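Case study B.
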Amino acid sequence: MATTQSAPDTTATPVPQIVAHDVQREQRGWVSWLTTTDHKRIGIMYVVASWVFFMVGGVEALLMRLQLAQADNTLISPQTYNALLTLHGTTMVFLFLMPMIAGFANYLVPLMIGARDMAFPRLNALSFWLFIAGGAVFCGSILFSPPECGWTCYAPLSEKAYSPTGGVDAWIFMVHLLGIGSFVGALNIFVTIANMRAPGMGWGRLPLYCWAMLTQSILLIISLPVIAGAVTLLLTDRHFGTHFYDATNGGSPILWQHLFWFFGHPEVYILVLPGFGIISEVLPVFARKPIFGYKAIAAATLGIAFIGSLVWAHHMFSVPMPYFVLVFFTLATYLVAIPTGVKIFNWIFTLWRGTIEFTTPMYFAAGFLGTFLLGGVTGIFVATFPVDWQLHDTYFVVAHFHYTIVGGAVLAFFAGIYYWFPKMTGRMLSERMGKTSFWLILVGFWVTFLIQHSAGLAGMPRRVYEYADVNHLETYNLISTIGSFILAAGVLLTGYNVVRSLKKGAVAGPDPWKANTLEWFTTSPPPVNNFDTVPRVRSVEPMKDIRRQIERQSRTPEQTPAGV
Amino acid sequence: MPRVVRDLLRFPVQRRFLVAASLSLLALAVLALAAGPAVAGPIAPDDSSGSPNAEGIRQLYLIIFALGMIIFFGVGGLLAYTLIRFRAKKGAVPAQIHGSTRMEVTWTVGAALLLVVIAVVTFAKLGQINDPPNSGPDGFPVTKSAASFPATGGAKQRLPPDGKSLSIDVNGQQYIWRYTYEDGDGNNLNNVFSYQQMVVPANTTVTLQIRSQDVAHSWWIPSLGGKFDAIPGSTNYTWFKASRVGTYTGQCAELCGRNHANMTAQVVVLPPAQYATWFARQKAAIRAADLGAAASRAALLREQKALLRGVQASATP
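Model:
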């Protein structure tokens, strides 16, 4: 039943078509999920597990918003509040976003490049189970004594003298476990993209999502060893009598900040670059137009990663540092705005003169553009070091990085969920619920975070469990709390939509969106081996070529392939 | 004009649409202004103390704010227009355009130029924000800047051109600020000090050296300029020169433990004459306390000696 067997005429061009068959016996039962090395199953487990952590991190955020809804509130104790802010930040960054990215990449990268699995399937499974172990260790600390030092765990506050309980150790252990998992996963993705692309898929035809994942892998490989080293030093400080971060014995607390942010700032791009990649895939499909400036977007991705690795100390403008250091990091940070601006213009001009179909993924992609835009603009404010002296560590910064991370990563993931759910499950998500969910999330987000800029300018530092009602702070915070619950309702609606559509969604078929990339060249969901035959790739949009070819060849009836 | 640019621009402009869009933007702006005072927040950092560094930061912020809003509404408006104007309609055909090097170079250079403008403005404002001026003629007469504590770390202190400033050592500790008024006599025990509330004279340049004795804290009084971290092992510096009398509040801005939210600070700016009175009273109180402590130490010593003599006497057979 191969595609072209019935055409003995050698002059006829083979007609590619969407066929794929199981060559292995399908594994069944829950044990098969524990032992699987199939990139699609691992990807789905990543996505589901990180969604669970997303819910946990969301509840932590809502508890904090409840506490802050009123001035001088006594709902939550300062100890619990500090634990909540630490849990929220760490959970969202390490246990929600990073694994969500890994899940999407696991599922999509081999399919998009026409490969049958990742380069190292067993290492892939190891990455996933290390993530689960790290998540369990960290969340387990909730039952005992969760860390209270913020997701940045600044020394000396995180040293034994000031944080004597095991919470910080649980945090360190989690960073190590997840770090190894992510590092191995990044190598895996890099090797897969570098070596396993379909015939004809040169670097100039690699989907932009894969460009983003390739670049993100490089960032992970560069920055993860640094945080691993930094937390190891903290561990030896805490338990083995060293003094790396102890100023009273010749160590340096500022060293921790440098090491942490040398990882921590690339981490921001580690979180948003995959989101950029998703947007670069979604926009051309629904504008029915090729991406505007493919090479510029790929180059901007690399540019953002390169410059993004050289700006870490802009998180430390208020630390005593020589003057030229401040100037260098301000100017370097300005430079990031250039490739980012290029991307935004290229995305807008991808839509320009298209015929935009407003499906739910397109809604989220549009929401991403507007939201991330404001995050980028406030980025210029905090990059300017004298201005940052006022804004640093206030709610202005909280608002800024939620605009970039929720705008740049989370909204892109919702676009991705609605876009690829049909491929992953064979069912469509409900568009009606999807659009309602979008509006709840978008409105909820803007209501929550726009006003936080003002709270910061009115003098409210971040990470405070209570505040006095001066300068209208109570009004701002109440507005913010109301917004956070609207946002939560939108997120829950998408969760419900997913659960419901698994059984009741319309059957998707292999290519419901008439999309551009190779993952739509197989059945939904794809079989274990992904593809029976991998077509030769002749452009950035192989599916468009294939559809065009089918259309052209099916006009001559005698060449219609048999067995369809 | 290259063909692709012409291609991009060739579309029937709907005047009606543009008018409606600008009218609704205008209506939104009017609504925001009308409802503004009730709900809108501050749009720039505070500088109500009249300290030049806080004023400089506010002015710089407002320039960047204006440019930022132009970018946001310009690009956001383009996005909104694109989304509405090019939504799928019957019979519409998407233009198969792959890009335009010229346009991409244009907006790359445009973004770079804008950043150059922001950088130039920042550097132009930097002197006002960084360099302390001399005290005003009606300020408190200070003889010279005096440091009582050794400085550590890589940051450098900036002093006014005439070298005269009121020097205060700010020490962060869980969860309170301690201020030591430096007199440079080499004896730190007789210095005037206070906790939480700092009293300073108006129109006088005050230089702070900021240290911490336990974890990282951050010194921040919004009306008096930016925040400066207090980190063990490094001395940090800032300054202010408040021209308006009043009480300015702030709080620790770096998570320092469970009571971080209550590590507040107040700076009370007094007319120089009142400050002099306050300072003399504190000095006298500290001297009296020192003398009292010395007297009770001496009394205690006498008592112990007497006791010791008694013990020795009873131990003698």
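The mean pLDDT of chain B is 87. The remaining cases will be described in the next quarterly update.
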